[in-house]
């Protein structure tokens, strides 16, 4: 094989889901597959997990439509409150509604299409201040809702803005509780689902999860909080060694600002470069003062997009020279590695371009 690929461990994904479900057996679960399922592949992952969760959730309606066209049958929540009313009804997607105007338009479309009481989830803005109905507008929204007959408030939810400070988390959770009490006790509306917690919050503070948990990072083994759970890594990026060559001391390697080699080196070529979405930590950069500003910028870039690291087994392998768009050079001096052998790149899968083939292992 002459291209890199990503191996997705489907069993590990399911095991991660089941660990959370066993920890919180009384909850409903929404599996988050937005953003190409965090790099794991939107359609394949949705199909693999749709029977493991109560709901799937996507970021935008286009993702939901793609899932429906691919044959996914599970309920799908569109988290972004921007949608075409007729499209969500045609493809049986559950929209997020956060304004009276959107509520009325959805009701009109449902009446036009004889869709019955079409379900939606109300998003309330608690502290994130990104989108969602402001708390002060809740009563007018509910009063309007009660005059409409072709929509049904199936769910109510919000997002935590803080996930590390217990007092802030509790404060935000209490604010959503107050909103839910208004909805249920004053207006007599009883949504089937109330959700606020993502993976990190649910694992660390399961009592604050209401009756539905949105799981994304934990499902893919990336949860910031684990609280005794042993989430498994769900992917490995593999890249084959295409060829090697011997480089003499004093030569330079790759594009640009490399300094001459201090010793002879065996250099290997791998089909992984910046066009695949990766930043690489590399050796033999120029150390001249002229490059100080460039190196500072690289440090900032590395913070924003952590560099990929290459391994042969458990042994780290240095990237040398400046990677090109599709290839990189690595130092394999003295290593028992042959052309065609596969190395592992430890990366954030979110950075991996969709052009890299995903292989699903069950």
From TrEMBL:
PROSITE patterns: ALANINE_RACEMASE (PS00395). One of its GO terms (molecular function) is pyridoxal phosphate binding. It holds the Pfam family Ala_racemase_C. Keywords: Isomerase, Pyridoxal phosphate. InterPro entries: Ala_racemase, Ala_racemase/Decarboxylase_C, Ala_racemase_C, Ala_racemase_N, Ala_racemase_pyridoxalP-BS, PLP-binding_barrel. The modification N6-(pyridoxal phosphate)lysine is found at residue 34. One of its GO terms (cellular component) is cytosol. Its cofactor is pyridoxal 5'-phosphate. Residues 234-361 form the Alanine racemase C-terminal domain. NCBIfam families: alr. This is Alanine racemase C-terminal domain-containing protein. It comes from Marinococcus halophilus.
């Amino acid at each position: 094989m002459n291209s890199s690929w990503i191996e997705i461990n489907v069993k590990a994904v399911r095991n991660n889901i089941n660990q959370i479900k066993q920890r919180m057996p009384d909850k409903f679960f929404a599996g988050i597959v937005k953003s190409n399922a965090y790099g794991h592949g939107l359609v394949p992952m949705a199909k693999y997990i749709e029977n493991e969760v109560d709901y799937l959730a996507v970021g935008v309606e286009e993702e939901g439509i793609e899932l429906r066209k691919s044959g996914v049958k599970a309920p799908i929540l569109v988290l972004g409150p921007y949608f075409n009313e007729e499209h969500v009804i045609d493809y049986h997607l559950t929209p997020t509604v956060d304004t009276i105007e959107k509520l009325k338009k959805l009701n009109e479309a449902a009446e036009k299409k004889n869709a019955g009481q079409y379900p939606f989830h109300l998003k309330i803005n608690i502290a994130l201040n990104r989108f969602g109905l402001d708390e002060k507008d809740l009563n007018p929204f509910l009063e309007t809702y009660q005059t409409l007959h072709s929509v049904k408030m199936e769910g109510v939810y919000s997002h935590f803005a803080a996930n590390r400070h217990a007092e802030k988390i509790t404060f935000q959770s209490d604010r959503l509780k107050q909103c839910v009490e208004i909805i249920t006790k004053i207006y007599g509306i009883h949504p089937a689902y109330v959700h606020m917690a993502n993976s990190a919050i649910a694992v660390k503070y399961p009592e604050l999860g209401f009756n539905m948990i949105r799981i994304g990072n934990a499902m893919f083994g990336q949860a910031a909080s684990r609280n005794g759970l042993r989430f498994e890594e769900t992917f490995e990026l593999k890249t084959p060694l295409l060829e090697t060559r011997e480089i003499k001391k004093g030569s330079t390697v790759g594009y640009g600002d490399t300094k001459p080699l201090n010793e002879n080196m065996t250099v290997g070529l791998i089909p992984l470069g910046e066009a695949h979405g990766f930043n690489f930590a590399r050796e033999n950069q120029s150390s001249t003062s002229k490059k100080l500003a460039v190196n500072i910028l690289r440090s900032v870039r590395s913070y924003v997009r952590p560099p990929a690291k290459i391994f042969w087994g458990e042994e780290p392998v240095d990237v040398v020279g400046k990677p090109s768009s599709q290839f990189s050079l690595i130092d394999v001096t003295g290593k028992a590695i042959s052309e065609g052998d596969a190395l592992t790149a430890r990366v954030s899968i979110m950075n991996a371009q969709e052009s890299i083939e995903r292989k699903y292992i069950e």
